[in-house]
Amino acid sequence: MKRALASCKPTKMWIDGKCFDIRRVPERGKKSEADETSQKNVRYEIKTNDQGKLFTSFRLPRAYCAKLSKCRRLDLKTLEGSTSTHISIPTSGNLVITGESEEKIVEARDEIHAMLGDLRDQTVALQFVSIPTLSTEIVENFTKFKDNILGDEIEGMHESIFQSPLKLHLTVVVFALMDDHEKLEATKALQDYKNMILDPLIRKAGPAKIKISGIDCMNRNLKKVDILFANATIVNENEEFNLQQLVNGLSDHFYERGLVRKYQDNVKLHMTLINTKYRKIPDSPKKKRWGKRQSVDATKIMEKYKDFYFGECDLNSIHLSLIGSVGKISYDDFFGSYMRPNLPCVIKDVTSTWEASSKWLNDHTVNLEYLKRNYGSCDVTIYNCNDRYFNSQRTESCKFASFLDGWGCERSNSQYLKDWHLKNTFKDDNFYQVPVYFASDWLNEFLVENGQDDYRFVYMGRADTWYHREHVKINITRLFVLRTPFHADVFNSFSWSANVCGRKRWILFPPGEENSMRDSLNNLPYDISLAYRERPHLEVVQNQGEAIFVPSGWHHQVWNLEETISVNHNWVNGCNIMNMWRALVENLDRVKREIEDCRDMEGFLHQYFLTSSSSS
Q1: For residues 410 and 416, what is the distance between their CA atoms, to the nearest angstrom?
Q2: pLDDT exceeding 70 applies to what percent of the chain?
Q3: Are residues 305 and 172 in the same domain?
Q4: In the listed set 279, 308, 324, which residue is the last one of a domain according to the structure?
Q5: Are 16 and 58 in contact (CB under 8 A)?
C-alpha cells in the first residue's frame, strides 16, 4: 500500500501560485539530515534581485504581521546578525529575506517558520479534515448506543456531551487557517489529494467500505474521560487499500503545504462519540456551556460496550469543515452539489465570528453610534424604493452619517443603501471574512490586485408597511417596501449575500424562466411579486447569520423583512467563467443591434464600446 500511495503522490507542489518539485521522505519518521536540507532548498524558492542579492519571500497572513514583530522568541536584529540577512516584515503582504548566502537565507526562514508555528499553535483550531460516516446503519446504532448509556444513569453523563448523529465523522487532521487565502489553499490541497491519490486508488482497488466498531478513549484513566471514540477500519483491508496509510498520506499532504505545523508519524483516526467540551448547563434557556470541563467515569461503558458495532459506510468523500458549525456543509459538498451544477443554497451560521456581528450590533439591533463614528464620513448611494426610474430606482448621494440620522423616520422606510464599497474604502478593516465556499474569486482578486473598483458591497435598509383605503373598507396590506427590482447579477456572475442582521425574502427563477416574463419590447418585469407563482421558482427566507448562494443566470427579487445589513459579493471562477463570457458576448451583440442605424455616423465605434461598457 505504501508503494501504491507513493506512486500516486504528487511530484509537484504549489506555493503562492508557483510550482516546485517535491522530494519525498523515503520512510515515515526517518528523515536524514541530507533529506531535510534537500527538502528545504526545494520548498524555499530563492531568487536574485536587481542588486544581485539573493532573496526569498512568502506571503504572511495579516493576523501574523503585527504579532511577528512583537514575538518574544524572535529577536530580529540578532537573527539578522547571525544569518547575515536582512528581514523585511510587512504590515501586510510578503515577508522578504535578503542575503548573500543561500544556506543563511534558509536558516533565517526556518527560524521564522518555527516562530510562526508557535503563533499558529496559540490560535484556536477551527478547521478540520474529516471522512463522513453518515450511513443509516451507523446513525441508528449510534442513537441506540447513546440511549443505552443515558439509560444506565452513569454519573456525570448528560445528553449534551454526545456528538450530533448528523455530524458523525472520522477526524483526520485539525488546523487553524488564519485568513481567506489559507482557506483557499486548504481547499485546493484537499482537492489535489482527492484528484491525484484517493480517486485513482478507488478506481484501481474498487469502492471501499469503512467499518466502525469498538470504542476507546484518549486517556488511560477510565474514571476521568473527556473524549470517547469509535475505531475505524477498511472492510477487507489489503495491501491495495490501507486506511491508516491513506490518512497518513493525507496528513503529510497538508504538512507539505505548510498548513499543518506538526508532522504526525501516525494519525489517530477516530469517530468522536462523547466529548465533555460539548456539555451544556441543564435547563439553561441559552444552553450555555459549563465554565469548567467535567469528565465522566467510563469504566462501565468500556466494560459493557468495548466491542460495540456501529456499522459500515462508503468511503466516497473527504471534507474540509469548520469546528462548531451547525447546518453547514463541507466545501466538497457545496462544490459538487451547488456551485458546479449552478444551484442555489442557504448556508447557516456564517457571520457569528465576524467583527461586524459584535461591533455593528447591540442585541440584534443596529449600533448606529458605532457605525456613525467609524464610517460616517463616507459617501454612499441611496436608492428610493418607492420611486421607480426606468427599470431601476431613483438614487441620491449623501454622507453615511446623514443616512443614519434619518434612520427610523418615515422617509427612511423607503431608502435603501446599496452597492457600498466599504471594504475597498477601508482595506484594513476586517469586519468580515469571506466564507471558504466563496473564496475562489477570480473577479475580485484581479480587481483588488490591480487597484481597481471591486464587486464587494454592503447593503443596509429597513422594512415597513403600507396602508391603502378602498371605498369605506380598510384593507391593511403588508408590502415589503425595501426591495431590489427583478434582475440577474452583473456579468451573469455568481453572488453571495450574508445577513449581519435582519431577514430577507428571496424569489429565484432558474435560468431561462425569465424569458417567458418579457414584454413585447423584450423587457423584464420590474416587480414579479404578484405574477410569479405560475412559473417554476424558489422562495427563501434568509435569516440573520445565514448566507445565500445565487448561481449564474438565476433572476431574482429580494425584500427586506426587518432592519437588515448584509455583505454581498459578485464573483467568478472556473465553474461559471463561460457563463460570464456568453453574457458579455450577448450584451455586446445586443448593443450592436440597438445602435446599428448609427453605423455611418462619426464616432460610431467609440459610442458602440461606450454603450456596451455601461450596459454591463
Answers
A1: 13
A2: 75
A3: yes
A4: 324
A5: yes
